[in-house]
Amino acid sequence: MTDQHSPEDTGTAGFLLEMGMLKRAKRSGWWIAGVKDPETIAEHSWRTAIIGSVLALMEGADPAKVALLCTFHDTQETRVGDIPWIGRRYLTAATNEAISADQVADAHPAVADGLKALIDEYENGDSLEVLIAHDADKLECTIQGIEYLQQGYPAAQEWVDSTKAKLKTTAAQNLAEAALNMPIAEWQRTYLR
Questions:
Q1: Using the 8-state DSSP alphabet, how is residue 38 labeled?
Q2: Which of 7, 29, 109, 110 is most buried (CB neighbours < 10 A)?
Q3: Each residue's pLDDT tens digit, 126-150
Q4: Which residues are CB-neighbours of 75 under 8 A, at least 6 positions away?
Q5: What Cα–Cα distance (Å) separates residue 80 from each residue in 56, 96, 125?
Q6: Which structural domains are found in the chain, ordered by start?
Q7: How far is CA 149 from CA 31, 51, 141, in A?
Q8: Dihedral, CA atoms, 165, 78, 31, 86, nearest 10 degrees?
Q9: Closest Cα to residue 104, out of 72, 81, 133?
Q10: pLDDT at 155 over 80
Q11: What is the pLDDT of residue 1?
């Protein structure tokens, strides 16, 4: 085994190590709602990818493509953090495309090109897969808000209402309504027998 690595391998490994920060970085918007220990960005992205796959299956889109878009949709937050919507009024940040390009600047060319194209598609595309990926992000926030409501954080209601109102696909709207009417204890009784 040699210690010689190509610069592209080193750059790609650096990107992968940077992505580990998402497992520790909290979704800061929930602090505004009083949630003391909110989910991490990685936890949000993981469930967003699951939701995106489910929505894609329900809407007749490519579930693998939607899951990929969802997995990488917040990777830029290793560099700028999770800026809540209220904070965006006061800050001028680089675009997600620019941040992603910087993150993979030293990575293997196929990785850099692929991820830059993926983020550009998520931010600027208009395909059914992009629409569903955006809905998955909002539906995950809605469901997380419902869980926080059920855990005793009443200020989460604003997040539930505002994100639910932005859902565009029929599948996402229907699942949000179903989740609103299903207490945690009910799905546990029903599905964990």
A1: P
A2: 29
A3: 999 999 999 999 999 999 999 999 9
A4: 19, 22, 45, 100, 103, 119
A5: 29, 10, 23
A6: 7-191 (1.10.3210.10)
A7: 13, 20, 12
A8: -50
A9: 72
A10: yes
A11: 54
Is it the case that residue 107 has pLDDT exceeding 60?
Answer: yes
- CA nearest to 52, candidates 136, 140, 138: 136
Confidence of residue 22 (pLDDT cuts 50, 70, 90): very high
- Average pLDDT, whole number, for the chain? 92
CB 139, CB 180: distance < 8 Å: no
Q: Which two tokens stand for residue 104?
A: 């993979």
pTM for this predicted structure: 0.91
What are the DSSP calls for 53-117, one per residue?
A: HHHHHHHTS-HHHHHHHHHHTTTTHHHH----HHHHTT-----HHHHHHHHTTTS-HHHHHHHHH
Region 179-191: what's the mean pLDDT?
A: 74
71 torsion bin: left (phi>0), alpha (psi -120 to 50), beta (else): alpha
**Residue 185, token pair as written in the block:** 């204890």
Q: What confidence tens digit (pLDDT) does each residue in 73-106 have?
A: 999 999 988 877 777 788 887 889 999 999 999 9
